[in-house]
Amino acid sequence: MEIWINPACSKCRSALTLLDAEGASYTVRRYLEDVPSPEEIRQVLDRLGLEPWDITRTREAAAKELGVREWPRDAENRDRWIDALATHPELIQRPIITAEDGTAVVARSDEAVRDALSR
Predict the structure, then answer these.
(1) Which of 36, 48, 62, 70 has the fewest CB atoms inside 10 Å of its own CB, making it the most exposed?
(2) Is the pLDDT of residue 96 over 90?
(3) From 3, 4, 7, 9, the catalytic residue
(4) CA distances (Å), 51 to each of 8, 19, 23, 41, in order?
């Protein structure tokens, strides 16, 4: 199990606290420092069953500068979104946990973290 975190994020810290309380074995990836490649983002999106716009933090300064809210959300523009996430990792929703069964969850709640643990 791997968890993508921003240490400054309270949701990430809460997820780590819960993982520790449950005795989970996991690896931490500080994705702002260890930036995922476009291919890694594609793999996580596949595991999540989501599209890149579903995990984009559109209120971040970089998102506003890029104007992502106005970008089309379709297959033709999917790579544009993925490239933006790889270039500006602060736009990636967090935390993301990759579960042992090959799936992943955006673990913004205790319920989502427990869901990842149960997989």
Answers:
(1) 70
(2) yes
(3) 9
(4) 25, 26, 31, 10
